[in-house]
Amino acid sequence: MAGTGTSQDPWQLTTAPGSSSYTMFRDDSVEPAELVCVVGSTTLRYQARAIEDLHAMLIQRGDWVPLGAADESKTAAEGSVEAWGRATDNPVGGWYGLRKGYRGRFGMYLPPLLEALGHVELEHNPRNNRVRARS
């Protein structure tokens, strides 16, 4: 993986289908720490603890989980990474996304980071990709 995950040297990532490139870095200068995801001219922010929390959820589920990426205004597919990233029963009690209006797409942008960090296996099909924890 290219990049070290800082604002000066962000991770260089690609969505699961390989259709879009984006960068992401960890910002520890704010509380709570954030993951800053830059896609073109759009910036999305997620709680940095999402890395560990999502990995733990995938270990607990023990099988493939659909990504289910969706914008904030759209309903996430039940049982998907996206649905979990906004569920009231996840470890943060709701959205991992921090910027209202841009809180969605958790299932699009977080799994490739976890794959690059070596935590998960990720499918790379044109559609309907899934993720699972590495065993």
3D structure, described in words:
β6 (120-122) and β7 (130-133) form a beta hairpin. This protein has three helices and seven strands. The strands form two sheets. A four-stranded antiparallel β-sheet has the order 1-2-3-4, with helices on one face. Strands 5-7-6 form a three-stranded antiparallel β-sheet. The protein has one domain. The longest helix has 12 residues, at 50-61. It has 135 residues and is of the alpha+beta class. The protein is globular and about 35 Å long. It has helices spanning 50-61, 81-84, 106-116, and strands spanning 11-14, 21-27, 34-39, 42-47, 65-66, 120-122, 130-133. Helices cover 20% and strands 24% of the residues.
Summary, kept brief:
The protein is α+β, with helices and mostly antiparallel strands and 135 residues long. 20% of the residues lie in helices and 24% in strands. The chain is globular.
